[in-house]
Design a protein that fits this description.
- This protein folds into two domains: 1-89, 2-Layer Sandwich (Phosphorylase Kinase, domain 1), CATH 3.30.200.20; 91-269, Transferase(Phosphotransferase) domain 1 (Transferase(Phosphotransferase), domain 1).
- Helices cover 36% and strands 14% of the residues.
- It has helices at residues 49-63, 95-99, 106-125, 153-159, 178-181, 188-204, 213-221, 232-241, 252-260, 304-324, 346-358; strands at residues 7-8, 12-20, 24-31, 36-43, 73-78, 83-88, 92-94, 138-141, 146-148.
- The strands form two sheets. The chain has a six-stranded antiparallel β-sheet, with helices on one face. The chain has a three-stranded antiparallel β-sheet with strand order 7-8-9.
- α1 packs antiparallel against α4 (153-159), α3 (106-125) packs antiparallel against α6 and α6 crosses α8 (232-241).
């Protein structure tokens, strides 16, 4: 960085290029007013007045965010000949650099994932969608701290006129959510899914869906392969973050709770039930006078006619029985005593008994 280098915005002296992409370059720069090192993201493409206005609105939103895991935006310019962002400079590398050395320890992945999910939860709470979460957008400082960078960069790119007239999907294909690939609405759940793919790549050491059209479609027919044998909090978190249906996917706040171990069970969002169809009142049909009367509905009570007939039959039987019942005043005629009690009298008693029975 030399003293004769041109000043960006009349204030920032550009130094070496430290990163960039298809639409902008990131330089190490010196803030000559505050005498501090910063990162200057300079967009290469110009845009019209409306685009510059949208760019300025997005930059103000990003500058208003403040979180320990966020790369802070200090300044911006939306002039016709200068379109740039001035951000906090993080000395170190990216998560992509760390992942290139091989699979990370699962416990480390869970720890960094919980912190990044907390950052997403904070940003989502401020109604900002990242739309391009990927390893190169996660900065890892020399002190080991992780920062989520380029929040809103996709929206800023849109404002800068980088989208094609055909409505090209913004984002990195490798980490897109299924709803992004299929052209659906892109909201907070898409950021959660992308972070899940980033963490899965860190723990397995391989890209789950490599770039290209075939890989973009693959996530629509094949779910990500979350390995067994990793810590329970990491496996639960990844499975819940990588749910294909965005309405069933957990939020960034829930992902942070799972990955950090603050909770062990998180319920996914339950879609609201469909409203019941309105009831249509049935109209009573008016029958013409010539029609026969409708059959009355039978009652569950037993009919009275059979019961009355049965009672009359019982009463009649009782009357006949009383009429022909022998009078209690009549005493049956007994045979004369055959002698003194004893064994000698037994034959005579049996004969009298037999005669009495025969009548």
């Amino acid at each position: 960085m030399t003293d004769d280098a041109p000043l960006l915005g009349g204030r920032y002296r550009l130094g070496s290029r430290i990163g960039g992409g298809g639409m902008a370059d990131v330089h190490r720069a010196m803030d000559t007013r505050l005498q501090r090192l910063v990162a200057a993201k300079v967009f290469r493409s110009a845009t019209d007045e409306l685009g510059r206005k949208r760019f300025a609105e997005e930059a103000r939103i990003l500058a208003g965010l403040s979180h320990p895991g966020l790369v802070t935006v200090h300044d911006f310019s939306a002039d016709e000949d200068e379109l740039f962002l001035i951000m906090e400079l993080v000395e170190g590398g990216t998560l992509a650099d760390v992942a290139e050395t091989g699979p990370m320890q699962p416990e480390d992945v869970a720890d960094i994932g919980g912190k990044l999910a907390d950052v997403l939860a904070y940003v989502h709470g401020n109604d900002v969608v990242h739309r391009d979460v990927k390893p190169t957008n996660v900065l890892v400082g020399n002190d080991g701290r992780a920062f989520l960078a380029d929040f809103g960069v996709s929206r800023l790119a849109d404002a800068a006129g980088r989208l094609t007239d055909s409505g090209m999907v913004v984002g990195t294909t490798t980490y897109m959510a299924p709803e992004q690939v299929s052209g659906g609405d892109v909201g907070f759940p898409a950021d959660v899914y992308a972070l899940g793919l980033v963490l899965l790549e860190c723990v397995t050491g391989r890209v789950e869906y490599p770039g290209g059209p075939d890989a973009a479609v693959a996530r629509l027919v094949r779910p990500p392969q979350v390995p067994y044998g990793i810590p329970a909090r990491l496996r639960r978190g990844l499975l819940a973050m990588l749910t294909a249906d965005p309405s069933r996917r957990i939020s960034a706040e829930q992902a942070g709770d799972l990955l950090s171990g603050r909770t062990t069970e998180v319920l996914a969002p339950i879609p609201a039930p469909l409203p019941a169809p309105p009831r249509v009142p049935q109209q009573r049909v008016q029958r013409p006078p010539t029609e026969s009367m409708p059959v009355q509905q039978q009652s569950s009570r037993p009919p009275l006619a059979p019961i009355a007939a049965g009672l009359l039959a019982v009463v009649a039987a009782l009357v006949l029985a009383v009429a022909f019942w022998p009078s209690s005043s009549e005493t049956p005629e007994l045979p004369p005593v055959s002698g003194d009690p004893g064994p000698d009298r037994l034959p005579a008693d049996l004969e009298n008994l037999e005669r009495l029975v025969r009548g």
